[in-house]
C-alpha cells in the first residue's frame, strides 16, 4: 500500500513542486538551485505521511492534497539547504549528492532556501480548498516550521553541540526540530480528510512519538549505518561531540527508547481506529519506516 | 499627517511584532537575535505606507492593519539580515548598528531570518480578517517576497555585481528586489481599506514607480550621502563595481530618472483621487520621503 502510494502518488507531489518553481521563478540560477535540491530526492517521508493519512481515512487524493504535501516538502528541503551551510552544520554530502552550497555557492543556497520557504506559503495559498481550511493549513505550517517549532529546534540543536545536555532538553529540541514537521504531516492529512478536532489531537500525539522515533533512529544510524546506505557521512555526531540519544542512553538504551516510542505510536493508531473510519494497516506500514532495520 | 502616523501609529505596529516574537519564540538567543534587528529601527517605510494608504482611503487603523504592517516589516527585516551575511553582501553596519551576524554569529543570523520570514505568515494567518482576505494578503505577500519577487531580485542583484548590465535589466532586478515589497505595501493598504480591483491596480502602478525611485535614491545616497546620515558605509557600490543608476546614467542622469519616477507617481495619485474616496495629501507627503533631500 505504502509502496504503491510512493511509486504512483509521490510523483504527483513532485510535479506540483517543480511546476510551481518553473512557473514562478524569475531567475535561472535560482531556479536551478531550488530544483537541484528538490530533485535530490530522499524518502519524501513528510509528503508520504500526508498521502497515507488521507488514504487511511479513506478519502480521495485530490490536487489540494498533493499541493499541501508539496508545500511541506518545500519547507523540509529549505531547512536541509540552510542546515548544510558552512555557517551551520557544514555538510558536503546530502542524499549521496553534493549539498546545495557546494554546487551553487553559499549565497545562492541561502536564497534558494528563502525561496522554497516563501514559495511553500504561496503554493498553499493557491489551493482550491475553502479559505478557512487554507488559513488553518498555512497557520499550522508556519507554527510547525517557525520560531516555536523547527527554527527554534535548529537553534537549540546548535547550542547542544559540544555540550552534553539532559535527555529532557534533548527531547524538547527534537520535538521542535524534527517532530513539528512530522506532526504537521499527520495533522494536515487529518484536516484534508475532514476529520474532527479530537482526531486531529490524536494525530498530533502520534506525530510526537513518530518525531522522537525518527530522531533516535537518525542518531543510531549515524553510528551503526554506512555512508553508502545513508548518502551522507556517518560518525559526524561523535566527531562534533554532539548530545545524541546514544551518547546519553548508550546504544542499547537508545534502541529501547526507539522501541518505546514506536510502541506508544501503535497505541494511538488503535485509538484512531476506534473513533474514525480509519484503516490502521497503512499507519502500521508507516511505523515500519522508523524501524532501525529499514 | 505622516509625522503623526509615524509617531503615534508605528509603535503599535512594532508592538505587534515584538508581542508576536515574545509569545512564540521558544529559544532565548533566537528571540534576542530577532528582536535585535527588529528594534534596530529604520524608517519603517513599508509599514508606514500601509498605514498611510488605509488612512488616505479614510478608513480606521485596526488591529489587522497593524498586524499586516508588522508582517511586512518582519519580511523586510529578514531580508536585511540575510543580505548582510558574509556569504551575501558582507556588511558590518546597518542602521548605524552592527549587523545581526556580527553580534549573534552567522548561524543564528540565518535562523533569525528564517524565523522572521516564517513568522510573518503566521502573524498574517492570525488576524481577524475574513479568511478570504487573509488568504489574499498571504498570497500577495508570498509572491512579492518570493521567487518571482524579492528573492529573485536579490539573486539578480548579486549576479549584477562586478558586471555592468543594461539599464533595462537593472530596472527588472530592482522592480523585484525593492519594488515588490513596496508595491505590496500600497496594494495591501488598498485591500485593508476595502478598495476595488481597479484601485488596487492603480496602487500597484504607483508602487512600481515608488520602488524604482527608492532604488535610484539609494544608489545616489551611496555616492552623495554620508555614513553618519545613512547608518551604513557609503561608497560600497563603487568599491564592488556594482551596476547602479549613477554608474549607468551618470549622477545627473540618475537624478533625472528619480524625478521622472516621482513625476509618474504624482500622476497616479491624481488618478486615484478621481476614482475613490481618497485624500491625495497623505500620498504627496509619502512622495517627499523619496526626494534626495530627505
TrEMBL record, chains A, B:
One of its GO terms (biological process) is terpenoid biosynthetic process. Keywords: Isoprene biosynthesis, Magnesium, Metal-binding, Transferase. It holds the Pfam family polyprenyl_synt. The keyword ATP-binding does not apply. It is an enzyme of class 2 (transferase). GO terms for cellular component: cytoplasm. One of its GO terms (molecular function) is metal ion binding. Signal peptide: none annotated. Gene3D superfamilies: Farnesyl Diphosphate Synthase. Its EC number is 2.5.1.10. The keyword Magnesium applies. It catalyses: isopentenyl diphosphate + (2E)-geranyl diphosphate = (2E,6E)-farnesyl diphosphate + diphosphate. SUPFAM superfamilies: Terpenoid synthases. Its cofactor is Mg(2+). PANTHER family: FARNESYL DIPHOSPHATE SYNTHASE (PTHR43281:SF1). Belongs to the FPP/GGPP synthase family. NCBIfam families: FPPsyn. This is Farnesyl diphosphate synthase.
Amino acid at each position: 500500500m505504502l509502496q504503491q502510494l510512493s511509486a504512483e502518488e509521490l510523483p504527483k507531489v513532485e510535479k506540483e513542486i517543480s511546476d510551481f518553481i518553473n512557473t514562478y521563478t524569475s531567475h535561472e540560477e535560482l531556479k536551478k538551485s531550488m530544483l537541484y535540491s528538490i530533485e535530490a530526492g530522499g524518502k519524501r517521508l513528510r509528503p508520504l505521511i500526508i498521502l497515507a493519512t488521507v488514504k487511511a481515512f479513506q478519502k480521495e487524493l485530490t490536487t489540494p492534497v498533493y499541493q499541501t504535501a508539496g508545500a511541506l516538502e518545500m519547507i523540509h528541503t529549505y531547512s536541509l539547504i540552510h542546515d548544510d551551510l558552512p555557517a551551520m552544520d557544514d555538510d558536503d554530502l546530502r542524499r549521496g549528492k553534493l549539498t546545495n552550497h557546494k554546487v551553487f555557492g553559499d549565497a545562492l543556497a541561502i536564497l534558494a532556501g528563502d525561496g522554497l520557504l516563501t514559495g511553500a506559503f504561496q503554493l498553499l495559498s493557491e489551493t482550491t480548498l475553502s479559505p478557512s481550511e487554507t488559513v488553518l493549513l498555512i497557520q499550522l505550517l508556519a507554527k510547525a516550521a517557525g520560531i516555536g517549532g523547527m527554527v527554534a529546534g535548529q537553534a537549540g540543536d546548535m547550542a547542544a553541540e559540544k555540550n552534553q545536555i539532559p535527555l529532557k532538553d534533548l527531547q524538547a529540541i527534537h520535538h521542535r526540530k524534527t517532530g513539528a514537521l512530522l506532526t504537521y504531516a499527520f495533522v494536515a492529512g487529518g484536516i484534508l480528510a475532514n476529520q474532527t478536532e479530537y482526531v486531529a489531537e490524536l494525530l498530533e500525539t502520534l506525530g510526537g512519538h513518530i518525531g522522537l522515533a525518527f530522531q533516535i533512529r537518525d542518531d543510531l544510524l549515524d553510528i551503526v549505518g554506512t555512508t553508502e546506505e545513508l548518502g551522507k557521512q556517518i560518525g559526524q555526531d561523535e566527531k562534533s561531540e554532539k548530545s545524541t540519544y546514544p551518547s546519553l542512553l548508550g546504544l542499547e538504551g537508545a534502541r529501547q527508547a526507539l522501541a518505546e516510542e514506536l510502541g506508544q505510536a501503535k497505541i494511538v493508531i488503535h485509538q484512531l481506529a476506534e473513533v474514525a473510519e480509519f484503516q490502521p494497516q497503512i499507519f502500521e506500514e508507516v511505523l515500519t519506516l522508523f524501524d532501525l532495520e529499514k
